[in-house]
Amino acid sequence: MTIDITPLTQRPAWKALEEHYRQIQSLHLRTLFAQDPERGERFATEAVGIYLDYSKNRITGETMRLLLELAGSSGLRERIDAMFQGEQINVTEKRAVLHVALRAPREQSIVVDGENVVPEVHAVLDRMADFANRVRSGAWTGYTGKRIRNIVNIGIGGSDLGPFMAYEALKHFSDRGLTARFVSNVDGNEFVEATRDLDPAETLFVVSSKTFTTQETLTNARSARAWCVQALGNEQAVREAVARHFVAVSTNAVEVEKFGIDTRNMFEFWDWVGGRYSYDSAIGLSLMIAIGPERFHEMLAGFHAMDEHFRTAPFERNLPVLLGLIGLWYNNFFGAETVAILPYDHYLGRLSAYFQQLDMESNGKHVDLEGRAVNYQTGPIIWGQPGTNGQHAFYQLIHQGTKLIPCDFIGFCRPLNPLKPHHDLLMANFFAQTEALALGKTAEEVAADGVPAFQVPHRTFEGNHPTNTILAQQLSPEMLGKLIALYEHKVFVQGAIWHINSFDQWGVELGKVLANRIIPELASPTEPALAHDSSTNTLIRRYRKLRGEPA
Prior knowledge:
This protein is an alpha/beta fold and about 550 residues long. Helices cover about 45% and strands about 10% of the residues. Strands 1-2-13-12-10-11 form a six-stranded mixed beta sheet, sandwiched between helices. A five-stranded parallel beta sheet has the order 6-5-7-8-9, with helices on both faces. The protein has a two-stranded antiparallel sheet with strand order 3-4.
């Protein structure tokens, strides 16, 4: 199909969706299910072990036809091909976007600037596996000869959220003889609490920073170095102690060596991998140590299976495309501003936080690829919490509040820890919530239950709240890879249609620049000359007064 270069909101496909929205905006899911007894089967599809039921959305067959037409006219197929072929689709940084290469099989070829990068990826994976096996077996010891029993991952953003989420998700598969901790915040409380009960002689730090100059990461790494050296020896022993208790994930060998880490223990990654897409690279070293190289490769195989599905499946049966289009339908036509991610699995407790960065850092953009201000909404706010905890917190607002909040429910048919009757109770709630959100309960139904008349309005559920149900057999390393890749590609779909760059993050820069300006003002032994706005000046002066001596 020919790519339409007309501005997005002026395209025939967009105009047709606007008209279609006006026609069906008040149509209730109760009516849709009553009119089509097979709706639950028609609006569902399955691929690579993931079943997607999207029937509880405020859509018709015509809605999906028009959304698919928008995807085609937006050049989605061409954008997918460009990414997989290593073209520089990150236009502001002039980089390829090839997180898919991180999980490509050894025999595959993906070319960037005339070079097949897959052998290089597997060379790093092989080095990671060798190191992970040495730590797990006890062959790698600390400075005093003690076995390593604690892994502390130091990083921020994608260097923390991904490994932390995946470790929690796959804790069932981890070596419980190893303790894994994650430190990201420059707030010293986090470092102190993460290391309080650890023995420095048994602790390995994995310091992850592409440039090895990230302020938060290097501040925590220096504190870790001082903590180790103080416990393990004197200053003369620093280099040897650091070499045994620190490894780096970075591209800057000079800074790594300056810190004291042996560059033979530096694991590389590449500028064509964005931080929020990187935990399946060397950024995941702490995860590989925890779960083992074999499980890590199972996870990579799951990523790749979803990559291939996304690359080859027809759009009408393509899981990331369907999720992306349905999300766009609510974001741009219904005016929904948030999406709730609701995994019904304790191990996925960090999933919503991970998807926050994946989605909001990728698609939180206000200009298009040509730098023109957009006149439509882009990325939604992502939030959520595992069920059933969320049911006793915020589901009240989703059911009976005034905001439209599309929800993704993620569940598994088999528990990792079969403890009767827990899983059936969990999944009964999982199924009940999507039914209740869709169909609600009318005033007549409430009254028929014998509810006092004055309570009827309060106990009525309007319903018509949209949900996707994502169902798989069981959480595993492979399944986690599939789920993460599913959402990575969903984000890609929406960014491609919005015609924005999903792979830069200039929005994080300004605050960093201003913080660097304020640091010496806070540390100054004399009253600094402040030139901020009056609010910031007053806050800095108040902080200095109440703080006492600089921390």
